[in-house]
Task: inverse folding
């Protein structure tokens, strides 16, 4: 996802301070952040956080468009 390591850490530090939970939503195959780092991709790949995968395309109703969406 497009969050930098600096921003990712800042969010997590604030959540810890406030005893809050954080829900990150993204795509590890998406273009990376303009700033340094790819923390979302790293925590998903290293299984540091629980994650879920969407396996069913709901936006593309046409079968041909669903196939294109897999790339």
Result:
């Amino acid at each position: 996802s497009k969050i930098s390591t600096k921003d990712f850490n800042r969010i997590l530090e604030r959540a810890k301070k406030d005893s809050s939970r954080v829900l990150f939503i993204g795509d590890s195959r998406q273009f990376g952040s303009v700033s340094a780092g790819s923390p979302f991709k790293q925590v998903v790949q290293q299984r540091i956080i629980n994650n879920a995968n969407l396996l069913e395309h709901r936006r593309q109703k046409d079968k041909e468009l669903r196939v294109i969406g897999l790339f």
The mean pLDDT is 76.
